[in-house]
Structures are given as C-alpha cells and as structure tokens.
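#structure-requests
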Amino acid sequence: MGHSSHNACAVALAISCLIVAASAGSFYDEMDITFGGERAKISNGGQDLSLSLDQYSGSGFQSKHEYLFGRFDMQLKLVPGNSAGTVTTFYLSSQGVGHDEIDFEFLGNTTGSPYTIHTNVYSQGKGDKEQQFHLWFDPTAAFHTYTIVWNAQRIIFLIDNIPVRVFNNHEAAGVPFPKSQPMRVYASLWNADDWATQGGRVKTDWKNAPFTAYYRKFNANADKVGPNSRSTSSVNDNQAWRTQGVDAAGRNRIRWVQNKHMIYNYCNDRKRFTNGLPAECKRSRFL
C-alpha cells in the first residue's frame, strides 16, 4: 500500500473516531434495553432514558460494549415520594461464574425518609464489601452525577465529582481485585421489598405505581474490548482516569462523607466477620 493510501486510511480512521465521539452518550447508540419492554423508554433524541416499575415487572438496560478499565459517568434522578421497596441501580459487571462487579444501588424509602446509597465490589464472584451512605441532598429533586473510576490501582466512587469511597488494589495482601474480566454497564429499576427498605420491614406500596427513575448524560471514557478481545483506546483524550487517585482535598471530602453520611461499613462489622476483619480493612482507611 502506497503512502497516499496510508494517509487516506488514517484520515478515514480519524473520521470514524470522530463519529464515535459525536455519538457517545446517545442511549440509542450506547445501550440495549434488557427487560421490561415499554417500561424502558429512550427519549429526547437518545439523550434521556427512563425506567419504570409496576407490580408486573421492572426494567433495565445494558451497554452495547464491554470495557476493561475506565471512567463511567451517569446522571440520575431517582424515584420520588414513597419509593420504599424499590431499588434503582447503576453498575458494572462481567458475566458467568466468578464474575466481577462494581455497584451503585439506590434503596428507596418512605416519603420524607432518605435514600440509602449502597456500594459494593465483587471480585471472582465474592462481594461482602458493602458501604452505605445517606446523601446530603434530595436525589429525587434534580439530576446528580454518579461516577465509577476503575483502573488497575483502585476503584473510586464519586457523587457530583466528590469521592465517597475508594477500594484499593491489595492483591499483594491476597485480596482479589477486578482487573482481567471485561464488564458492561448496567442499570435497572426493580422490586426488592424483601430486603431493600428497613431490612424488608417496609413493603412496596403498589398504589403508587408506576415508579419511574430517570437517566441521562451517560459517558464512558474507557477502554472498549472488541470481539477479538483486544482493548482499544478511548476516543476521549482525557486519560487521567488511568492513574487517578485521591489527592489531599479528595481525602478531606471522603473523611467528611464517611464521618457525616456513612451508615454502614463492612470494615467495622466485627459481629459479621467473627474470624477477623477482611485483610484490606487493615491497610487503608478509605475503603
């Protein structure tokens, strides 16, 4: 192939990358509805997506692509009013036995009582790393941005760009860490009134159905894994997520969130871990 042909291919590749960049964030282009039929609705030219739950079914969607590391942002507005028994989710997961998973789950509550933000990390099929928070704002009144940063060194959970949790890679201490299984982005709204609200004591009130949660402005600045399992660079030039950590200001924000808004931390649950706390709990304050 001649030099001009090489240039033509390079130009064509650049154009195709630009097209991908322009379409990033469109739910039509990025997501597939996985269950719930018409309860999941894409609107506003692909910019908005709503999920609904009634007594017959919830609804959900997943990304068309798989990723191996990246930064994943989604804006959500949660079910308002009496959302007891409902769970709204935004998470990453691989498939199969021994799967990896990184979770944001939003557990509904009775009118006037706060949502519980439930976070967890699974590696090789094992989770049990829950941290839960109450928010410092009403997540049903407006959209807020929920972010998962996943690189080889750590996982960072952020809300409106405020870090609320860090799960560091402690493989050297024998703690499994998600690093080899590509994951898709998932989201869902479903009924979990056997456990979601006050330990299952408060059930879903179907008189309030349908329950609806709203998603918008999805962005994956991440490495897509193609059919041949080769990772391709993300279109976005900002690669800060690859080595992103938490600076001094971020550590102060985490201290504030964990001191003021954390309601459960597995690393403090000695009744649960009667044989001793998990190894990572001894190695980092900000888990």
